[in-house]
Amino acid sequence: MREPSASPARGLDEAYNDFLLARYPSYAGTTALDALRAADYSRIDQQQQVYLDYTGGSLYADSQLRTHFELLRSAVFGNPHSANPASVAMTEHVERARRYVLTYFHASPDDYIVVFTPNATGALKLVGESYPFEPGSRALLTFDNHNSVNGIREFASARGACVEYAPLTVPELRLDGPRLAALLSQADPGKANLLAYPAQSNFSGVRHSLGLVAEARSKGWDVLLDAAAFVPTGRLDLAAVQPDFVSLSFYKMFGYPTGVGALLIRRATFAKLKRPWFAGGTVNFVSVQGRAHVLSPSEAAFEDGTLNYLSIPAVEIGLRHLESIGIGTIAERVRCLTGWLLEELMALRHSNGRAMVRIYGPVSTQDRGPTVALNFYDPQGHLLDYRRVEELASEERISLRTGCFCNPGSSEMAEGLTEEDMLAALGEGPGISLRSFLQLVQRRGHKSVGAIRVSFGLASNFADARRFVQFAARFRDQAHLAIGDVTFDIESCRVIRDGS
Q1: What is the DSSP letter of 105?
Q2: What is the DSSP letter of 356?
Q3: What's this model's pTM, rounded to 2 decimal places?
Q4: b or e along 95-113 (b: 16 or more beta carbons within 10 Å of the residue's beta carbon)?
Q5: Among candidates 450, 328, 369, 338, which has minimal Cα distance to 201?
Q6: Torsions phi, psi of 55, nearest 5?
Q7: Quick check: 382 and 484 in contact, CB under 8 A?
C-alpha cells in the first residue's frame, strides 16, 4: 500500500506538487479561490484555523458584510408591506431578493414562488403541515434524510397516510434502485403522494440522481427535494429539474445571514396545500366576529409574522458573491480536495497492516459531494472514540463535526443497526443517552452510533486537507482511545470478534 504523500515528515510544497501535478491538475484552474481566501477570508489563516465543517455552515466573506452593512447604514428601513417610505423601501429589497433567488436557480416566476423561512427546517415544516395527506395517500422518505425531513412522517401518519422508507445499499450508502422503483410503483395517482429525498446526503456526501424527480412525478408523486447540503457546491437548475418543493438554508451556501432559508414551491402544486392555521401577514381578510379568514393567494400565505427583513437583502448579496466566483469553480476545487483526502485516508495503515480509517459512503468522487464521514480504528480493529477525536482536533484548531449529524437513517444503515437494536434502545426509556446507547449496541455486537465528518467548501484549500491528514496519521498504532471490545475488520466490513 502506497505511503501517504502528505505524511508529517514531508513538506507542504512537496505534498502540494504531488497533489497538483501528478494527481489533480485541474485544481490549477481554481486558483482564483486562493486570492479570494487571502482577500475575503484572511481571518482563517490569521487565526491558524482549519475549518472543515462547511456542511454544518459555510463561512462568510468580508465583502458580504461590508456590502450589507453599507446598505443598512445608508438607508432608513421599516417593517415591510406598508405604505410609508421606510416600509416601501424595505419591501422593494425583500422582493428584489425574492426575484434573485429565482434567477439564481434558473426558476421562472411563472413556475415557482419563493417563501422565505427561518431555515430549511422551517421550510420543511411548512410542507409537512400543509401537504394534503389522507388515507390512501403515501409518504416515501429515503433512509438518509435529515431529521427535519423525517419529521414530515408525523404529519402523514396523523392523517392516515402510509409512510415508507426507501433503503440504502452498503457500503456506499446509495439508494437501492430496485427497491425504490417498487415503492414508487405503489402510489395511487388519484391520491396525494409525496417523495422526499436529499439531493446530497449530509452524512455520506452521496449525491442522488436529480433524474429521480421526473421519474417519481411520472408515477404520481409530488417531490420534495432537500437541497440544503447540495447547493453550496452544486448547481441546481430548476429549468431542467422541477421538483414540487425545494428546501434550503442560505447560511449553508455563503455563511451570512443566518436565520433565513427558503421553500421554493411549484405554482402547479401550490394550490394543493392547505395551511392548518393563519398568522399575521398571511391573510387578506380575517374576522373575529365572523370567525373566518381568507389566506393570501401567494407566498405571503406561508410567511408567518414579520420576516427577518433586515437580513433578507444579504441573501441577494451572498448569491451574487457565489455567482462572481462561479459554482463550477467551487465544485471542481472541492472535488479535487475530496478525492485527495479519500485516497490519503484509505492509504493510512497501522504497522501491522490494518487499515486505520473506515469511510462511510463512496471512496471516490463519483456522484458524491465534499462531505466525508469516517471513523478511526486501532491496530486490533477497535473503534476509537470519535468524541475524543473531536476534542483532540479542537486542540489543533481543526473544526470538524461528530455524531450522526441529525441523519439517523444513514448511521443505522452504515453500522448495520437493526429495528430490534433501535427498539431495544427505546426500551431504555427517557434515560437513554449517547453513551448508554453506544454501550448497548456494543453489547449487541455492533460498532458505533456516530462518526467524524469532514467537509470542504468555497474557502477550502490544500493546506486544510493536508492538516487533517497529518492529524489523522497521529492515530497510527494508537489504542488508548479505543472503546468497547468489538473488533471490526474494515476491509470486509464485518465484526470478526466479540469479546464482551
Answers
A1: T
A2: S
A3: 0.92
A4: eebbebbbebbebeeeebb
A5: 369
A6: -70, -25
A7: yes
Name every residue whose Cβ is closer than 8 Å to that of residue 13 and which is 6 or more positions away in sequence.
Answer: none
Distances (CA, A) of 408 to 108, 275, 456: 35, 29, 22
Q: In whole angstroms, what is the distance from residue 107 CA to residue 102 CA? A: 5
- What are the Cα distances from residue 433, in Å, to 164, 341, 438, 485? 27, 32, 8, 20
Strand 398-399 with 50-51, pairing = parallel
- Return the half-sphere exposure (C-beta side, CA atoms, 13 A cut-off) of residue 374: 28
C-alpha cell at 446: 455492533
Q: What's the CA gap between 54 and 458, in Å, rounded?
A: 8
- By CB atoms closer than 10 A (0-12, 13-18, 19+), residue 46 is exposed
User: What is the rounded average pLDDT for all residues in the chain?
Assistant: 91
Q: What is the pLDDT of residues 307-325, one digit of tens each?
A: 999 999 999 999 999 999 9
Q: What is the average per-residue pLDDT within 15-21?
A: 94
Type of residue at 60: Y
Cβ pair 234, 258 in contact under 8 A: no
Question: Which grid coordinates are listed for 95?
Answer: 422582493
Q: Catalytic: which of 162, 336, 404, 406?
A: 406
pLDDT tens by residue, 340-373: 999 999 999 999 999 999 999 999 999 999 999 9
Tally: H helices and E strands in the chain: 19, 18
**DSSP state, 53?**
B
Q: Could you please report the per-residue DSSP string of 173-229? A: --B-HHHHHHHHTT--TTS-EEEEEESB-TTT-BB--THHHHHHHHTT-EEEEE-TT
pLDDT band at 499 (very low <50, low <70, confident <90, very high): very low
Cis status of the peptide bond prior to 257, with omega within 30 of 0: yes
**CA nearest neighbour of 126 among 383, 285, 304:** 304
Which residue in 343, 380, 374 sits closest to 482, CA to CA? 380
Chain-centre distance for alpha carbon 435 = 25
Q: Is 406 a catalytic residue?
A: yes
Sign of CA dihedral 215, 216, 217, 219: positive
Task: Say how far apart CA 397 and CA 47 lie, in whole Å.
Answer: 9
Listed in sequence order, the residues at least 6 apart from 91 whose beta carbon sits closer than 8 Å to its beta carbon are 80, 81, 82
Joined grid coordinates for residue 88 = 416601501
